[in-house]
Structure formats: structure tokens, C-alpha cells
Amino acid sequence: MGWTKRIIGAAVLGIAGYSAYDYYQAGFLTRPEMPEGAFSLSYKNGLRGILVGVPNEKENRRYFGFPQDVPFYLKDAWSFCSPPEGPEQAQAAAFIKSRNQPGERFEVICKIKADNDVVVRGVITSVPKL
Fold first, then answer.
1. Partner residues linked to 112 by β-bridges
2. What are phi and psi of 107, to 5 degrees?
3. CA dihedral in degrees (111, 87, 51, 33; nearest 10)?
């Protein structure tokens, strides 16, 4: 009985430790305040976005993040993501057309404000969960 409890205890500690590490790696400890109705996504490739102005369809769709190359000090920063506007709409349409993936749709463009500059951090698309 003693060994069984130790093994179970070690497994619980291992799972708890991994969960805490994963939460830290995803950047949720540094996530800024989110506006009402927004939701966040964090990717292993470094893209971290707070999606504003789009419905949360995580139950029905899978979200894919495509980061842009940014300076090293912006790689772990949270960005605010919103649907494309104006000339960005044509670029979004061209991006989706070039990928030619069935059911994929363009969701948002993620941007970071650094002083008076706006840096495009990446884009997020989605496909239906089947």
C-alpha cells in the first residue's frame, strides 16, 4: 500500500507541475486585461492574441496562428487581434486564396502598439472541427 500511495502522489505532483509550467509557457500570467466579449489564444510558436470583435467559436472551429517576424522583445508580447479593415481586407482575401484550404477562413490580424508604432504580430485563421 505504501508504494501505491507514493506512485499516485508522484503522478499527481507531476501532472500539477506540468500544468503550471504549460500555463506559464502560454503566457497567461502576463496577459493584460481583456475587453468584454474578448477571448485569448496562445500558440507554441510565440503568437499570443486577445481576439476582439469576433465570436468565440472554439467549440466548433480550430484556430491556427501564423506569426510574423518581429524584434526579439516583441516575440512574447500579447497582441490585440481584430478583423481586417480597409486595405487589410484585400490582403486577408489574398492570404486565404493563396493557402487554398477547404473551409478555412481568415479571422483576425494581431497587432502590438509599441510607443507610436503599430507592429503586425501575425494573423489567425480557423477551420471547422470535424
1. 119
2. -100, -65
3. 50
Cell 493557402 belongs to residue? 99
Cell reading at 43? 500558440
E strands present in the chain: 39-42, 48-51, 61-67, 79-82, 105-114, 117-128
CB within 8 A of 51, min separation 6: which ones? 38, 39, 40, 41, 81, 82, 107, 108, 124
Cell of 31: 496577459
Q: What is the pTM of this model?
A: 0.79
Residues in the chain: 130
Taking only the tens place, the pLDDT of each residue in 65-120 is 999 999 888 888 899 999 998 888 888 888 888 988 899 999 999 999 988 899 99
